[in-house]
């Protein structure tokens, strides 16, 4: 069976529509429909139903989907082994990242890496830390940026200690403060990150044994900043995300100070290792150049 048809089927399920899958993969909607119909003819039963809202998997489609995903994943791992054997001339490196790293470190690192290894294709995926760890364990990412935490299930290389900072409306009484006491999160309206984005914040809460006043739950650091700028409450974000931004708010160190450790997590699969090792070397050089040292 043609693996392209498997890829089309899996991507259609991921996207929820034939047209969107075709757009992502570079096919027309009729091409996508034809390939899925070819699968259904080959298997002898329907895999999905089409309606105005998109597609719905049949019960048989639900049973078949995990096997197709595994075939595609096994094929990708095999090709990475081939690429690893052939060296660094060609290959794909899939990186899971979050905004602060993507903007502060990766552009320079990728630029330098691509100058030396133009045949290596780099794919970036924006996930929250829990998703990055999960996809590393599944082999769907080669490396991913994480913050150090208890019970990490993947190999982790620490790179940088990033200070966590209070962000406050530019108004009384905050503009009179030199530092922001962590205890104030219990009484000030706290604009809290949604689940999946909240590990570093919850780590501070756990260490300080406080019960924060969670006034809002917001998805995305930019949304938190916008709400603080409009005086709706206070926030807590990493320094790396706040750098080089034109902000209409106050940024203060916490009292006591808190930090997160940023590093690289690695896939458990023994594939693509030469590319991964080489990219890690380039990333370490960029971090060391920016901050003068690396964490041991």
3D structure, described in words:
- With 296 residues, the chain is of the alpha/beta class.
- Helices cover 45% and strands 25% of the residues.
- The strands form three sheets. Strands 3, 4, 5, 6, 7, 10 and 11 form a seven-stranded mixed beta sheet that branches. Strands 1-2 form a two-stranded antiparallel ribbon.
- A hairpin with a 2-residue loop joins strand 1 and strand 2 (54-57).
- The longest helix has 28 residues, at 59-86.
- The protein starts with a helix and ends in a 5-residue tail after the last helix.
- The model has no long low-confidence stretch (mean pLDDT 88).
Q: Report, as a whole number of angstroms, the end-to-end distance.
A: 49 Å
The overall strand count is 11
Please report which band the strand proportion falls in: under 5%, 5-15%, 15-25%, 25-35%, 35-45% or over 45%: 15-25%
Provide the succession of SSEs: HHHEEHEHHEHEEEEHEHEHEH
For the largest beta-sheet, the strand count, sense and barrel status come to: 7 strands, mixed
Shape: globular
